[in-house]
Design brief:
The chain has 281 residues and is α/β, with parallel strands linked by helices. It has helices at residues 18-27, 56-70, 86-102, 126-137, 145-152, 159-169, 216-228, 233-250, and strands spanning 3-11, 31-40, 51-53, 77-80, 107-110, 115-116, 119-120, 140-141, 177-185, 188-194, 199-205, 278-280. The chain has a single domain (3-280), classed as UDP-N-acetylmuramoyl-L-alanine:D-glutamate ligase (3-Layer(aba) Sandwich). It is built from 8 helices and 12 strands. The strands form 2 sheets. A 10-stranded mixed β-sheet has the order 3-2-1-4-5-8-9-10-11-12, with helices on both faces. Strands 6-7 form a two-stranded antiparallel ribbon. The N and C termini lie far apart (37 Å).
C-alpha cells in the first residue's frame, strides 16, 4: 500500500492542513501517517480560535516514534504544509534525510505555506527557511501566486511570470516540479505544473464567495501528490484541479468558509466534471 507522511496543522472544526489532507489521501486508498504541527479549534482566519502550536521537539518525538515502529524510509512520500515554527522545518528535513539514507526514492512534496493575498501570516523567519533550506530539499513544491513571489522575490502577474519565476527555482537541490496555484485571469483561475522542459495548465471558472474558502490549497496539493504517486504529471494535475472544483461547487455560500469536502467526497473517486490539461509552449 502507498504511504504518505503528512506534517501539517490540524483543526478540530473545519478542513485545513491535516484535517483535509489526511481524509483526501485515505479516501484515495493511501495510508497516511499524520503528524500535526499545531492543534487549533478552527482556522485562525475565522477570527477567534483556541489551541497551541507544537514545539519542534514535540514534532521530532512523534517522528522518531513513527521511525521506531514503521521506519520512515517506508513512506513513499513526505508531505508538509503549515509548520508553525521554522525549527519544525528543520525537524522535517532531519526525518527526510534519515529516510533517504535508506531509501533515496522517498519523494518530498512541500506546500510552502506562508501567506496569501499579499499578506504573510507565518512567523517572520519561515520565508527564509523555506527559501534557503526546505524548498531545495523538496522534489515538488506547491506555492500559491503570492508564495511564489516570496520564494523568488519576483513579481508574478500572470502565467508567463509564474513560469519564469518557477524555473528560477528549479535545479537548486532536488527540486524538479513547481505546482503554481491561484493564478487568476479574468473569470478563470489556473493551476500550472512547471518543470525545466514543459509546462501544463488546467483552468476552471473562478467561483466567488462572500469569504474566501480555506483549505483549497491543502486539498489540491494532497490530491495532486496522491495521483502523482501512481501516475504522470498531466493526469495528476487534471484530476486534482477537477476534484477540487467539484468540492468548491459543493460549498454552501454563506454557510461557512470551507469546500464541500465531505459532501463531495466522491470527487476523489471520479470528478463530476473533468477539466482538460493543456501544454503551454
Amino acid at each position: 500500500m502507498t504511504t504518505v507522511l503528512s506534517v501539517q496543522s490540524r483543526v478540530a472544526a473545519g478542513h485545513v492542513g491535516n484535517s483535509a489532507a489526511v481524509f483526501c489521501l485515505e479516501r484515495m486508498g493511501i495510508d497516511v501517517w499524520g503528524v500535526d504541527t499545531l492543534s487549533f479549534s478552527n482556522h485562525a482566519g475565522c477570527g477567534a480560535f483556541k489551541g497551541a502550536v507544537r514545539t519542534a521537539e514535540e514534532v521530532r518525538d512523534i517522528l522518531n516514534g513513527i521511525d521506531g515502529c514503521f521506519g520512515l524510509e517506508n513512506a513513499d512520500a513526505f508531505l508538509s504544509g503549515y509548520l508553525g515554527r521554522a525549527e519544525t522545518g528543520g525537524v522535517v528535513l532531519e526525518a527526510l534525510e534519515k529516510a533517504r539514507r535508506k531509501n533515496p526514492n522517498v519523494l518530498y512534496c512541500c506546500d510552502p505555506v506562508m501567506g496569501d493575498g499579499g499578506r504573510v501570516y507565518v512567523a517572520p523567519d519561515i520565508p527564509d527557511a523555506m527559501r534557503e533550506k526546505i524548498v531545495p530539499a523538496a522534489d515538488v513544491i506547491a506555492p500559491n501566486r503570492f508564495e511564489l513571489e516570496l520564494l523568488t522575490r519576483r513579481s508574478v502577474r500572470g502565467i508567463a511570470d509564474a513560469v519564469a519565476a518557477a524555473r528560477s527555482l528549479l535545479g537548486k537541490g532536488r527540486l524538479r516540479l513547481v505546482l503554481a496555484t491561484g493564478l487568476e485571469e479574468g473569470d478563470s483561475i489556473s493551476v500550472l505544473s512547471i518543470s525545466e522542459s514543459e509546462t501544463f495548465c488546467v483552468s476552471t471558472p473562478f467561483a466567488r464567495f462572500e469569504r474566501p474558502l480555506c483549505g483549497t490549497g491543502d486539498i489540491l496539493t494532497a490530491v495532486f501528490l496522491g495521483k502523482l504517486l501512481t501516475g504522470d504529471v498531466p493526469t495528476a494535475l487534471s484530476f486534482s484541479v477537477s476534484a477540487l472544483y467539484g468540492m468548491i461547487r459543493a460549498a454552501r455560500p454563506g454557510g461557512g468558509n470551507a469546500p464541500g469536502l465531505i459532501e463531495a467526497q466522491r470527487e476523489l473517486e471520479a470528478p463530476s466534471e473533468m477539466f482538460s490539461c493543456r501544454r503551454i509552449p
